[in-house]
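agent> fetching stored inputs for the magnesium ion docking request
agent> found them:
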Amino acid sequence: MKKHIVLLPGDGIGQEVIHSAQGALTALAEEYNHTFTFETHDIGGTAVDLHETPLPPSTLEACKNADAVLLGAVGGPKWDNYPSHLRPEKGLLAIRKELGLFANLRPVKGFKKLLHASPLKEEVVKDSDLLIVRELTGGLYFGTPSERRDNGDAVVDTLAYTRHEIERIVDNAFKYAQIRRKHLTSVDKANVLESSKLWREVVEEKKAEYPDVTVVHQLVDSAAMKLITNPASFDVIVTENMFGDILSDEASVLTGSLGMLPSASLREDGFGLYEPVHGSAPDIAGQGIANPLAMILSASLMLKYSFHMEKEAAVLEEAVHSVLEDGYHTGDLHIIDGHKVGTEELTNKIIEFI
Ligand code: NAI
Ligand code: MG
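agent> prediction call returned; pasting tokens
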């Protein structure tokens, strides 16, 4: 298959880890007879420096014409005091909205070699393997009005959803549950919020189309507790934007490191942007020691969700398991009696496995 991929390295370690993903994908293409072509564009602080905007029109245009987009990370202290329209994160919010990426997927799975590194007890995290499906372009982060009133002494934010917005994300989540362990937890606050009542209605209606999937409704506060006391009880979780933002950061402690978590942001037709959950890590940028595995796992999600290359996606995931099992790791991970290596050496181990 021929696929054209836009690379958006962004800032800090984004520049380093994207290079690893490109190397792994190139090796995979060779091994499995695909042609992957790459085109690199600016986003975030780097784009602000070069083009005076965090999302240049040329970047957006290139993404619209690509088969998929891989993004590193954006931001850094250099741009912290820039005016809000020149903040690197603005580029990230804008590209999600412009490309219509309404479904954010975060798979969270413990790696055997890293279980001891989680702050939670090993027997609690041991069997956790869950997928958070977060609505990404609606709800509290996009609703209007969102403003200060009464000379700044009052504020309003708006949590707004349409039936259509809820239906498409819930439908997505049912589909993922169907190909996983057929268990869907819908998280809301239906005892208080009107938006959650409609959310629950939609889930109840959709249920009929997926009779093989078991559905549980759970309030967000108790879901937050259960996520760290009994994570193995979850399969797919579907929830609105802000609840998903918070729960997915909470779930990240299950894996023991930020450097291991990938994410996918998808549109209805399967087009997607893939990025690690971590940021630009300015404290270690430029030193060649960043962990490339979250970026490589994000590339694996791209192969699976956008290109339907199930086998190639699985090989990349196995490569990550395998190098960890062999004890290779970057400095952010702790493996007992392991071999600490840099970004490039760890990437080469991945490529050797492929
Ligand atoms: P961060 O994720 O960049 O770093 C947090 C800590 O984890 C640091 O000590 C860092 O060295 C370490 N770390 C993160 N990823 C790593 C990796 N792959 N390998 C080894 N160590 C890793 O979060 P922080 O420090 O809060 O933010 C730094 C900048 O990144 C800020 O400007 C922030 O706005 C931005 N950011 C961007 C995101 C994105 O582009 N999606 C997400 C989160 C933060
Ligand atoms: Mg967040």
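agent> quick read of the result: The domain at 1-107+259-354 is CATH 3.40.718.10 (Isopropylmalate Dehydrogenase).
agent> awaiting further instructions
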